[in-house]
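Lab notebook, bench 4. The sequencing result for the construct came back, and we need a structural model before the next group meeting so we can plan mutations. Quick request posted to the team channel:

Model the 3D structure of this chain.
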Amino acid sequence: MTTLAEVLDAMTISGELFTALPNGDVRCFACGHRCLIRDGRRGVCKVRFNAGGELRVPWGYVAALQCDPTEKKPFYHLLPGSDTLTFGMLGCDFHCSYCQNWVSSQALRDPASDASAAYLRQIEPSEMIEYGLNMGAQVVASSYNEPLITSEWAVAVFKEAVKAGLKCAYVSNGNATPEVMDYLSP
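Done. Here's the predicted structure in token form:
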């Protein structure tokens, strides 16, 4: 039987938010933990990992994709009355017992969250944006899990969104680094 880790590891690309270190370790900058990740190990989020001195990061899937009122994000002053296409992946750099999205955020941390594999859907950024436009979305948001740890994917989605005239947003715990903030800046 294929494990959730094997499924997720197959849906990765080489990351951009890291520094390679001389001994094969990598230093990840996706979140404030700034994980030092040794070869064959994972960061605190469990979805970013070191494979032979290369940081591998989530890519090409969603665990959730939904069009909802923008106010539900909750952004009350961003295009009031509009809809937002919200997408999420798996993993988080926090482990909050009260998380409303526990199944997706705690993937690979808690065996009971392995059920999240059933919700994965491979998709291209352009497909997501086409779907959002068809649903009448004016905003695209990365949410559900912690978006900072999937920033490479979010930036690819946001580039397509901007081309289509959509606004972009993160619903985050805010545990960001200056490097990821620069990376996300337009």
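The chain has a mean pLDDT of 95.
Will bring this to the meeting.
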